[in-house]
Amino acid sequence: MNAAMIAGAVVGFGVYVLFRALFPSRPGLAARMAALDAARRRDLEQQRAGTASPGLERVGGTRAKIGRELAHFCEARGWRLRSVRADLAITERSLEAFLATKFLLPAAALLFIPLIVAYFTLLGLGSSVAVPVWICVLFAGLFFFFPDMQLRQEAQSRRQDFRHVVGAFLDLVSMNLAGGRGVPEALMTASNVGEGWAMHRIRDALSNARITGQTPWQALGGLGEEVDIAELRDLAGALALVSDDGAQVRKSLAARAATMRSRELSELEGKAGERSQSMLIAQLFLCAGFLIFLAYPALMRVLAS
Asked: What does the entry list under GO cellular component (predicted)?
């Protein structure tokens, strides 16, 4: 019964895919506009970089082709994937490689169905395909969500580092403003101090702003939108409001830097408290196991008598 249900589900899914391939749905206006925006964004990125993205160059030809097809499919359906794009931007990965990984990992898990069936047959556990199919489907589901979890974890770590760099950047800008520089010159001079990847992103955004004719705070706001850093968006809004008053800008930046440092210290203290609690729980379990180890022989002796 289970094998018949699985076979019927597979046949039904194949008929559905064939029908969708022969009669594709027409994308709406929002989907077409999203596709045009995505194409324009890719052209701008290629013009700025001069070559294809490094993440796409590292993948193979078949994987790159699958990634491009999946990206076109998402764009045609109007799926913006904003959180995923922000995580990919902060980790400097390409959307095509990410989508190809999400597709190929579950597909590889499903390809092991015949091997598991043959292994079960050799062990004498029966020739039914229901159990191997469900095992492979379970692993395929896990593999489908594994790239998202890995990407989210790495993006969270890099955002924390980026916020730390933004706090130091605000202090540097405030010191440059105190030295008599204007806001654009102070921003560019402060960005030339550090050599980390986060400071490179800020420096590139400010350099591109000069080429494209944008204001520096607009470039910082665009970078904040791209990598999903709220502090950069707030900084861009504050600079746009008080860009003409140097003293007010300096006070605002100093206050924001102090706020970010206090917030970072609070987060570090919270993480330290969580780790202390986890260590305390581990010690309690260790003590409980040691007490059981000491009391077990006496208890067994009492019960035996």
From this structure: plasma membrane
